[in-house]
Amino acid sequence: MSHLCDGLRFKILIILAVNMCTMMVYAEGEQMLKPAPKGWPEEVKAIEYEASIDASQQPMLIYTAQAKEKRPLLVGLHTWSGGYEQAGGEAVYARWCMENDWHFIHPDFRGPNWTPEACGSEMAVQDVLDAVIFMQENHSVDVDRIYLVGVSGGGYSSLLMAGRSPEIWAGVSAWVPITDLGVWWEQCDGKLNYAKHIEKVVGGRPDENPKTIEECAKRSASTYLDKAVGVNLDINAGVTDGHEGGSVPFSHSLYAFNQVVPDKDHIDPDLIEAFYETETLPEGLEKADTDALYGEKQPIFRKVSKNTRVTIFDGKHEIIHTAALNWLAQQRKGKAANWDIKERYDLKTTDNETESGK
User: Fold this and answer.
1) What is the DSSP string of 267-287?
2) Is residue 17 located within the same domain as residue 43?
């Protein structure tokens, strides 16, 4: 009889342990919360949400603001070869949100950009939109303060989303972005593996099949950027990117600017190419004013056209978080872009706030 009692006690303990784990996992109603991957603050959790395009469960990282009133939402996008678990400079986004009491999400949008399901696909685009909708439906989000930020492949996706869904964003901060996949494929072909990634995505070499050229265009931010004219959009790149400082020529950022702004504000393509080839500001382009938010990596060239700005700074393939996040914090949907940032917040953490991303 004692053996039966011991066995019953053991079963009860197991049930209690399982129930306690279940309570921990379902800490926010029906949202399944799990610990974030290594490198993220412990306050950040991993969850899954339903993708409207195929009813699959898609993962993302989440941090929710503590205040009950509506709070801003920051959407951080992973780099070219990363996924939602990627922890590098992306964790700085989360720390900013924790210290400023913002909501934060870091969606997967089908993972690294070397499959047809990822890399600007309809699935990937809709996954980002579904993640935003999920936050609006489950948390108190200020819809006038939904922000988007990304570097490298995340910069590419940020520009893409600015053009695909301009009505959502109060501000989009894109760093060292790829603008045109076909152009980048040509720049990487025979030199960098990113060319092979693009071939896997579009079904072959873009110089051999009209369908692959069409697929590159379909997934390129450049195809949609004319729709982003009303978005508060800040585009940034380091002057050595595309040379020894990184894999994405900074000319992509300058051409992206041209695709958003009116013809009268275009940067002369000849000057763009001269600037990129020499990494020196050519005659005809004015030197930028200093900007305290950029620290030691000061702007070399900057141009503004209403809600759109491009900055080439003294840096490489990286993001300057202080500049990106402080600028975003001052933007409001439907309002003219604020380029005069007088209020500055510096993170209390001591981590390096620049990041190289691929």
Assistant:
1) PPHHHHHHHHHHSSPPTTSPB
2) no
Domain limits for position 3: 1-30
156, 251: one domain? yes
The 10 Å Cβ neighbour count of residue 160 is: 29
Rounded to whole angstroms, the Cα distance separating 282 from 214 reads 34
| Chain centroid to CA 218 | 19
Number of structural domains the chain divides into:
2
Q: For 149, how many CA atoms within 13 A lie in the half-sphere containing its CB?
A: 31
Are 235 and 257 spatial neighbours (Cβ–Cβ below 8 Å)?
Answer: yes
- How buried is residue 286: exposed, middle or buried, by Cβ count under 10 Å (0-12/13-18/19+)? exposed
C-alpha–C-alpha distance, residues 202 and 214, integer Å: 9
Q: Is residue 2 part of a domain?
A: yes
CA 172, distance to chain mean position in Å, is 9
pLDDT tens for the 358 residues of the chain, in order:
444 344 444 443 443 443 444 333 434 445 689 999 999 999 999 999 999 999 999 999 999 999 999 999 999 999 999 999 999 889 999 999 999 999 999 999 999 999 999 999 999 999 999 999 999 999 999 999 999 999 999 999 999 999 999 999 999 999 999 999 999 999 999 999 999 999 999 999 999 999 999 999 999 999 999 999 999 999 999 999 999 999 999 999 999 999 999 999 999 999 999 999 999 999 999 999 999 999 999 999 999 999 999 999 999 999 999 999 999 999 999 999 999 999 999 999 755 444 445 6
Strands (E), the chain: 34-35, 45-50, 57-63, 71-77, 103-107, 141-151, 171-175, 233-238, 299-305, 308-313, 319-320, 354-355
